[in-house]
Specification:
This protein is an alpha+beta fold. It is built from four helices and six strands, in the order βαβββαααββ.
């Protein structure tokens, strides 16, 4: 089992915690984590951008997509719109991507005493253990 640190901005973190966003998507210009590093069964630590780790989740299913065109990205977003809960800004940002990773989340649980992680870079996804 691999453990990951996923940094999330609002309103997406709150949507996951409320159970209305059930798929976490990462749209990427290059193949970078979580592309190729997250699989079903892995544990995710959900960290507020600029804040603490607030919850854990398990990856129930993972799908990766390669060499996407803007038309394919739009179709992907529309297919999973209800589970992704993306704002227009994120939809627009995704159009510049060539790769996508969709992670179906399960077992989302808030943490009362969150662990600390020393992270000082700009990565939005970190593989903690493999």
């Amino acid at each position: 089992m691999v453990r990951h640190l996923a940094i999330l901005r609002e309103p997406y973190l709150s949507r996951i915690l409320a159970g209305v966003k059930t798929i976490e998507a990462r749209f990427l210009r290059v193949r970078a984590a979580p592309y190729g590093s997250v699989t079903a069964g892995d544990t995710l630590f959900l960290k507020r951008a600029g804040g603490p780790i607030v919850a854990t989740a398990r990856a129930a299913r993972v799908a990766t997509f390669d060499h996407l065109t803007p038309t394919q990205i739009t179709a992907l977003i529309e297919r999973y719109a209800a589970e992704l809960r993306l704002d227009n800004d994120m939809r627009s940002h995704a159009q510049h991507s060539r790769y996508a990773v969709l992670i179906w989340l399960t077992d989302v649980a808030p943490l009362g005493d969150p662990p600390t992680v020393s992270k000082r870079d700009r990565r939005a996804w970190v593989v903690l253990e493999s």
